[in-house]
Amino acid sequence: MAIFAVSDFREAARRRLPDFLFNYIDGGAFEEVTLGRNQADLQSLTLRQRVLRDVSDMDLSVNLFGQELAAPFLLGPVGLAGMAARRGEVQAARAAAAAGVPFCLSTVSTCSLQEVTQGAGSPPWFQLYITRDRSITEALLDQAIETKCTALVVTVDMPMSGIRYRDFRSGMSGAPGLKGQARRLFQALCRPSWSWDVGLMGRPHGFGNIAPFMGGNTGMEDFVSWVAGNFDPTVTWKDIDHIRSRWSGPLLIKGILDPEDAQTACAAGVDGIIVSNHGGRQLDSAPSTASVLPSIVKAVDGKATVLADGGVRTGADVVKMLALGAQGVFLGRAWAYALAAGGQDGVARMIDLLMTEMRVTMALTGVAQVQEICSKVLVRQ
Ligand SMILES: Cc1cc2nc3c(=O)[nH]c(=O)nc-3n(C[C@H](O)[C@H](O)[C@H](O)COP(=O)(O)O)c2cc1C
Ligand SMILES: CCCCC(=O)C(=O)O
């Protein structure tokens, strides 16, 4: 199908992926209220059209943590994204490296940190989950240090995995044993081009970084039960202090949605905060990220770099997040859909598309430099 926008990538992904995988990527927690709010609140913001301001000298580049980015967005951590296409995270990381934007590898990727680093020719950012068995967290942290990852993102909004009814309904989880396997196999057989590309059921992939800790188990239900058993409800700010003492590079906390938590994060010495509700996959009925971003930027008061994600599907959405005070934006589903639809080329195309949309949006709002984007590009409501 012809692709012009991220919404087309989503439709192409829906057609190409087996049902359980598309719904895992596309879905959110419980009734998906927050998932809907993220996009709806961004869409409800009105941009201010300005004219006759010479916007010919356009520059999208930004510097984050001493790293030069070609555009103010990056590919955020998406677990199991690698199942969307053969050696998927390597393909996405290559597209990101070629475009000059960072790629952040999830703890629960299908390709390992080593494979992604070798495949892309440079180390990615690494996203760390703190596991119940802290020796796993330590081992992952050691790997990130050895690999010289360019930033560490500690995700803190998952002391417990959110409940996603779509995963139950599709057979991704909640249908253990043969029944679940048979359902997923049937869905894969209905998607021959995906099955051919990734190998039946993504089997050759394994579960990258966590595979060594899964005791030789390689099935989807093994993954789901590993996750359920290893996410740790005892996590506190002390764990962040510990990670801060071990990690000297840029440290970001992902999953902040409250100004008080943002201030505590600054006091813990983090370099960056990612305002995120995990793409509406954790606390359903939590506010959209766009709605809380300005109050968090105010609370942080320049003590850390504030990034944001949630519902970003267009270049205009990126501009809006920056207008609300973010210094950079993480993409989630946008790149996962593109990877599913077209592998490395799909992700490259998606990045290019967002850059083009940003340029046009900036030109029509009368700004040429990313640094000029501020609340003035929004119509006050
Ligand atoms: C399929 C999927 C898997 C995800 N896995 C992770 C993960 O492993 N670690 C993490 O920190 N965030 C994860 N996230 C959350 C994303 O990093 C990001 O916060 C979210 O997708 C942003 O919302 P958006 O997809 O609407 O842009 C995942 C999101 C999706 C859609
Ligand atoms: C299943 C939990 C790990 C991946 C993740 O963070 C997500 O699916 O949102």
UniProtKB/TrEMBL annotation:
<keyword id="KW-0288">FMN</keyword>
<dbReference type="GO" id="GO:0005886">
    <property type="term" value="C:plasma membrane"/>
</dbReference>
<feature type="binding site">
    <location>
        <position position="164"/>
    </location>
    <ligand>
        <name>glyoxylate</name>
    </ligand>
</feature>
<feature type="binding site">
    <location>
        <begin position="77"/>
        <end position="79"/>
    </location>
    <ligand>
        <name>FMN</name>
    </ligand>
</feature>
<keyword id="KW-0560">Oxidoreductase</keyword>
<feature type="binding site">
    <location>
        <begin position="309"/>
        <end position="313"/>
    </location>
    <ligand>
        <name>FMN</name>
    </ligand>
</feature>
<dbReference type="GO" id="GO:0010181">
    <property type="term" value="F:FMN binding"/>
</dbReference>
<comment type="similarity">
    <text>Belongs to the FMN-dependent alpha-hydroxy acid dehydrogenase family.</text>
</comment>
<feature type="binding site">
    <location>
        <position position="155"/>
    </location>
    <ligand>
        <name>FMN</name>
    </ligand>
</feature>
<dbReference type="InterPro" id="IPR013785">
    <property type="entry name" value="Aldolase_TIM"/>
</dbReference>
<feature type="binding site">
    <location>
        <position position="106"/>
    </location>
    <ligand>
        <name>FMN</name>
    </ligand>
</feature>
<feature type="binding site">
    <location>
        <position position="24"/>
    </location>
    <ligand>
        <name>glyoxylate</name>
    </ligand>
</feature>
<dbReference type="GO" id="GO:0004459">
    <property type="term" value="F:L-lactate dehydrogenase (NAD+) activity"/>
</dbReference>
<feature type="binding site">
    <location>
        <begin position="332"/>
        <end position="333"/>
    </location>
    <ligand>
        <name>FMN</name>
    </ligand>
</feature>
<dbReference type="GO" id="GO:0009060">
    <property type="term" value="P:aerobic respiration"/>
</dbReference>
<dbReference type="Pfam" id="PF01070">
    <property type="entry name" value="FMN_dh"/>
</dbReference>
<feature type="binding site">
    <location>
        <position position="129"/>
    </location>
    <ligand>
        <name>glyoxylate</name>
    </ligand>
</feature>
<dbReference type="InterPro" id="IPR000262">
    <property type="entry name" value="FMN-dep_DH"/>
</dbReference>
<dbReference type="InterPro" id="IPR037396">
    <property type="entry name" value="FMN_HAD"/>
</dbReference>
<dbReference type="InterPro" id="IPR012133">
    <property type="entry name" value="Alpha-hydoxy_acid_DH_FMN"/>
</dbReference>
<feature type="binding site">
    <location>
        <position position="276"/>
    </location>
    <ligand>
        <name>FMN</name>
    </ligand>
</feature>
<feature type="binding site">
    <location>
        <position position="281"/>
    </location>
    <ligand>
        <name>glyoxylate</name>
    </ligand>
</feature>
<feature type="binding site">
    <location>
        <position position="278"/>
    </location>
    <ligand>
        <name>glyoxylate</name>
    </ligand>
</feature>
<dbReference type="InterPro" id="IPR008259">
    <property type="entry name" value="FMN_hydac_DH_AS"/>
</dbReference>
<feature type="binding site">
    <location>
        <position position="254"/>
    </location>
    <ligand>
        <name>FMN</name>
    </ligand>
</feature>
<keyword id="KW-0285">Flavoprotein</keyword>
<feature type="active site" description="Proton acceptor">
    <location>
        <position position="278"/>
    </location>
</feature>
<protein>
    <submittedName>
        <fullName>L-lactate dehydrogenase</fullName>
        <ecNumber>1.1.1.27</ecNumber>
    </submittedName>
</protein>
<feature type="binding site">
    <location>
        <position position="127"/>
    </location>
    <ligand>
        <name>FMN</name>
    </ligand>
</feature>
<feature type="domain" description="FMN hydroxy acid dehydrogenase">
    <location>
        <begin position="1"/>
        <end position="381"/>
    </location>
</feature>
